[in-house]
């Protein structure tokens, strides 16, 4: 015989009925478990959330196992005879948690919500019918929510969120009752709700209007005076506009319209306004000009070409051909491939490409893009085409949040941005056609110059590229090269020695440049002596030996490296271990285990002989030919232990410096402290967050390479270091919007953590990857990872990890529109941080809690939390956090009708953000500044603020610019109509 249907109740006592018979639910903890599933209302409830409700901040280590026992007991209660470990139909496993399968027929909460929604839907056209539905909804409440569960569980935000639905429904019913002329129907519910929520001004306003409508005007005015006195006593404020309007209506007669906004707006500010230092200040006048910095100009066209060489010579024929290809008006072929014969390196491809690009740059007014694709880098660190195209999109003004996921989509956006523009693109040192293809513009008007050791025949065949082949210098070109570097008189005095040097260098410009630098540094040395030294030197660089000559080019580099001091030669060899495209002086010092002051003159020696190039201020790089030579030497002359120690010093240099930057950018985060730095490591000093951002920006590509290298080392210590480095980079990637790079390093970190089989590292890895997946909109991946991370942190007893993961889950709730869920997770995080005594994290999450209260229309509670956060943030010196909190405060003041205070808050936020390099956040606040000016009737102030926001958004090529344009156009149209 089939069982009778089940009915679940939570709007009052927690009860379950089968037919007319009530089931025995067990003790308070079992009832709390069921109540949480019921307020979840058909959504999966994570195991970690169940643990939070049942035990709060101090769960036992067996908590997860106890939850599983509760699950089994409830399944057997709902479905007697269910086989052991069977799931059944009512309580199912879903998304890493548990979901109770209910609907409007079986759940009183879902029935209540359905009736309220239908009432809202028809309220305008049929208030009487809406009133009938809403009174039926209110009748489902048989007392306070979830009676019979422990007070600790009842205080959880999941229950508080449902609690707030009752006064909202009462306000909605009062509105319908007044419209339908039936205020008496809801008066009892209004009295009861107003008594429970004495500071809810819209609710109190509804009571006033209903009392007046049934002829109880004196009671209505007395109720107003009682609320006014309570607001003054408890909050030190006067009633807000909603309540004052209701009083005025009572004084002038029975109302003819509805209660007003049912959004939950409540008057009440914690303070009349505070300055940036937390002191009380006078609010700004309503007609004050829009705050913020002067509107900046749009981003200039990119100009990324490296410096050209002043002594360029020897390529007249090739340059003439190049100019002919580009045409006088730039109308030549769209792609030119500069390749070398026989895989030759050091023949001058980059030098020619850059020189040519500088000569024709003026024909491309929309900018020049340059990237070193590192196609033949001896370290194997070939640049991913996705990373390259994202770099170009950033240079062209596309904000990171607009960059889609996947290389194909990114390349399509890149081509769209270039459409109709005249841009010069230089793709240096390409490995193959597949690396180049995503970076090619899709429309005429652009010129792309590609250099490669490969002839890239596929580009010629499929894309109409023109091939320009470079060969080594012949004798005439080589002598002209030496004349340009050493002077005509010196070369003419020893022509045979000059020719021998050219021959020994195999006509390669790079080798000739090294020898010329040595000779120029010793102007009294005969060229014959230089040639003799070169002839007697020995080297090995088999990969770069010319196929048509017996000369070993490595000999030239061996000879050059012998011309420097022993310490400089050691540094030259160790530099080959660096995985990045370039490095700084402090990084070079760490490799060598030297103080910076001792490494500086050694790098000067190497740059003086062209063994290393200083391509930018304080940034050094190898030609890949020289890197390969140094790589051979470091393996020949240094033991494996020496090389491992040098890399360990380098990795610690980056880890300790990134850790310092992380603490400056995100003082509320929970990074793992790095292990002690080995001797010889001197992390770079970073005085403030500005210096931290500047350093991280300069080292961006290097840090990506270091994470990959350390993770791939196969050494547990280095793999752990890769994890720590990746997690410490999170605030930088998030602040700058480099989420695709963040995705790559977080995947690497999670893989390394799993190889180490360390649950604590795996939990952090899951959370780190989930956060960046969420930023990229990959929520189907991010939420299960966060829920699993929360389970691991709970099992480990890591309350800090739990708290930060709750914050991340709160953000995920926000993204899907679940504001009560976002508030619930942040409030739980706040409780944990308070227990832990983590003031920086408390301050940050207090603002988040305040923001979500404001989003839910609870502006008084929002201000309470935000001002508490602001005081702490000012004590901590967290400027970014202060700016975010002032924004929240201003938003709440705006919705309370306190517009001068809102303008003051926005002004303080913008002042703090001005030098932090976050233009999108500034623009977002300026839009709200305009909204506030508009609310005061200051149309000029609104227009000024929106125009400033529009300039910023256009400079970012951000889609929100369209919304601001719509605001401006609407204002202009309104002004014209007037």
Brief rundown of the structure:
This protein is mainly alpha-helical and 978 residues long.
What does this structure look like?
The structure is a single chain. The chain is mainly α and 978 residues long. Helix content is 60%, strand content 6%. The chain has 45 helices and 14 strands. The strands form four sheets. It has a five-stranded parallel sheet, with helices on both faces. A three-stranded antiparallel sheet has the order 1-2-3, with no helix packed on it. A hairpin with a 2-residue loop joins strand 13 and strand 14.
Give the SSE map.
Blueprint: E1 6-9, E2 15-18, E3 21-22, H1 28-40, E4 45-46, H2 47-55, H3 63-78, E5 91-94, E6 97-100, H4 108-122, H5 127-139, H6 151-154, H7 157-163, H8 165-180, H9 187-196, H10 201-213, H11 217-235, H12 241-252, H13 316-326, E7 335-340, H14 349-360, E8 368-372, H15 385-395, H16 407-418, E9 424-430, H17 433-436, E10 447-452, H18 457-463, E11 466-470, H19 475-486, H20 488-493, H21 495-504, H22 509-521, H23 527-536, H24 554-562, H25 566-575, E12 583-584, H26 585-592, H27 596-608, E13 613-616, E14 619-621, H28 624-637, H29 640-665, H30 689-698, H31 700-711, H32 716-728, H33 730-736, H34 739-756, H35 759-775, H36 779-796, H37 799-815, H38 819-836, H39 839-855, H40 859-876, H41 879-895, H42 899-913, H43 919-935, H44 939-955, H45 960-977
Parallel strand pairs: 7-10, 7-11, 8-9, 9-10
Antiparallel strand pairs: 1-2, 2-3, 4-6, 5-6, 12-14, 13-14
């Amino acid at each position: 015989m089939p069982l009778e249907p089940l009915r679940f109740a939570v709007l009052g006592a927690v009860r379950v009925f089968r037919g007319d018979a009530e089931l025995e639910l067990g003790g308070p903890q079992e009832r709390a478990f069921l109540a949480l599933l019921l307020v979840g209302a058909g959504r999966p409830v994570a195991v970690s959330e169940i643990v939070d409700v049942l035990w709060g901040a101090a769960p036992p280590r067996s908590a997860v196992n106890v939850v599983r026992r509760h699950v089994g007991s409830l399944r057997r209660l709902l479905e007697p005879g269910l086989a052991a470990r069977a799931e059944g139909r009512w309580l199912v496993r879903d998304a890493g948690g548990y979901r109770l399968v209910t609907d409007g027929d079986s759940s009183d909460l879902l029935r209540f919500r359905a009736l309220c929604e239908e009432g809202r839907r028809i309220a305008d056209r049929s208030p009487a019918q809406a009133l009938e539905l809403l009174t039926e909804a209110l009748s489902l409440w048989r007392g306070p929510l979830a009676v019979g569960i422990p007070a600790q569980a009842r205080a959880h935000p999941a229950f508080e969120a449902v609690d707030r639905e009752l006064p909202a429904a009462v306000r909605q019913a009062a509105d319908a009752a007044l419209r339908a002329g039936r205020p008496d129907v809801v008066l009892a519910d209004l009295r009861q709700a107003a008594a429970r929520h004495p500071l809810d001004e819209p609710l109190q306003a509804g009571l006033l209007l209903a009392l007046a409508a049934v002829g109880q005007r004196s009671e209505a005015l007395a109720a107003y005076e009682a609320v006014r006195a309570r607001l003054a006593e408890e909050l030190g404020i006067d009633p807000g506009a909603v309540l004052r309007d209701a009083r005025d209506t009572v004084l002038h007669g029975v109302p003819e319209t509805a209660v007003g906004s049912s959004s939950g707006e409540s008057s009440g500010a914690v303070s009349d306004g505070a300055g940036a230092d937390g002191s009380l200040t006078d609010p700004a006048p309503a007609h004050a000009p829009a705050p913020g910095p002067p509107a900046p100009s749009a981003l200039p066209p990119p100009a990324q070409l490296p410096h050209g060489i002043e002594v360029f010579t020897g390529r007249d024929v090739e340059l003439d051909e190049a100019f002919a290809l580009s045409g006088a008006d730039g109308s030549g072929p769209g792609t030119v491939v500069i390749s070398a014969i026989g895989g030759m390196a050091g023949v001058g491809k980059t030098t020619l490409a850059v020189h040519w690009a500088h000569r024709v740059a003026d024909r491309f007014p929309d900018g020049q893009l340059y990237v070193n694709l590192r196609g033949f880098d001896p370290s194997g660190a070939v640049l991913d085409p996705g990373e390259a195209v994202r770099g170009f999109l950033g240079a062209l003004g596309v904000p990171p949040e607009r960059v889609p996921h996947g290389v194909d989509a990114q390349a399509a956006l890149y081509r769209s941005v270039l459409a109709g523009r005249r841009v010069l693109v230089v793709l240096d040192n390409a490995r193959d056609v597949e690396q180049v293809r995503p970076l090619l513009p899709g429309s005429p008007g652009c010129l792309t110059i590609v250099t490669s050791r490969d002839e890239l025949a596929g580009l010629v065949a499929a894309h109409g590229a023109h091939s320009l082949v470079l060969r080594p210098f012949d004798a005439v070109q080589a002598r002209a090269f030496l004349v340009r570097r050493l002077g005509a008189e010196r070369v003419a005095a020893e022509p045979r020695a000059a020719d021998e040097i050219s021959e020994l260098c195999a006509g390669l410009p790079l080798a000739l440049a090294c020898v010329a630098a040595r000779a120029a540094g010793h102007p009294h040395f005969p060229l014959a002596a230089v040639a003799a030294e070169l002839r007697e030197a020995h080297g090995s660089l088999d990969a770069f030996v010319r196929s048509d000559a017996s000369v070993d080019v490595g000999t030239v580099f061996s000879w050059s490296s012998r011309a420097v001091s022993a310490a400089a030669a050691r540094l030259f060899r160790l530099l080959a271990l660096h995985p990045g495209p370039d490095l700084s002086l402090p990084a070079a010092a760490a490799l060598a285990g030297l103080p910076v002051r001792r490494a500086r003159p050694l790098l000067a020696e190497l740059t003086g002989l062209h063994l290393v190039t200083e391509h930018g201020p304080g940034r050094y790089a190898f030609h890949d030919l020289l890197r390969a030579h140094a790589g051979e030497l470091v393996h020949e002359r240094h033991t494996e232990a020496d090389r491992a120690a040098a890399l360990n010093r380098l990795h610690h240099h980056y880890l300790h410096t990134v850790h310092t930057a992380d603490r400056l950018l995100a003082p509320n985060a929970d990074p793992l402290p790095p292990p002690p730095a080995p001797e010889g490591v001197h992390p770079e000093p970073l005085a403030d967050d500005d210096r931290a951002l500047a350093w991280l920006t300069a080292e961006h590509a290097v840090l990506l390479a270091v994470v990959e290298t350390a993770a791939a080392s196969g050494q547990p210590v280095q793999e752990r270091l890769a994890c720590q480095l990746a997690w410490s980079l999170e605030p930088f990637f998030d602040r700058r919007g480099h989420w695709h790079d963040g995705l790559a390093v977080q995947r690497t970190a999670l893989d390394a953590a799993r190889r180490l089989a360390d649950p604590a590292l795996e939990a952090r890895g899951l959370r780190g990857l989930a956060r960046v997946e969420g930023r990229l909109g990959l929520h189907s991946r991010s939420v299960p990872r966060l829920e699993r991370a929360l389970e691991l942190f709970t099992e480990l007893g890591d309350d800090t990890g739990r708290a930060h993961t709750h914050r991340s889950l709160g953000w995920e709730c926000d993204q899907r529109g679940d504001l009560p869920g976002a508030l619930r997770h942040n409030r739980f995080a706040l409780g944990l941080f308070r227990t832990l005594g983590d003031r920086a994290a408390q301050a940050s999450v207090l603002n988040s809690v305040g923001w979500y209260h404001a989003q839910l229309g609870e502006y008084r509670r929002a201000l309470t939390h935000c001002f508490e956060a602001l005081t702490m943030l000012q004590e901590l010196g967290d400027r970014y956090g202060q700016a975010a909190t002032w924004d929240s405060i201003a938003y709440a003041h705006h919705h309370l009708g306190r517009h001068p205070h809102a303008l003051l808050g926005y002004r303080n936020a913008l002042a703090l953000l001005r030098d932090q390099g976050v233009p999108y956040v500034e623009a977002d606040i300026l839009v709200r500044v305009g909204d506030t000016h508009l609310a005061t009737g200051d149309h000029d102030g609104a227009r000024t603020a929106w125009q400033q926001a529009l300039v910023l958004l256009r400079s970012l090529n951000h889609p929100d610019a369209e919304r601001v344009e719509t605001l401006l156009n609407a204002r202009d149209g309104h002004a014209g109509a007037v």
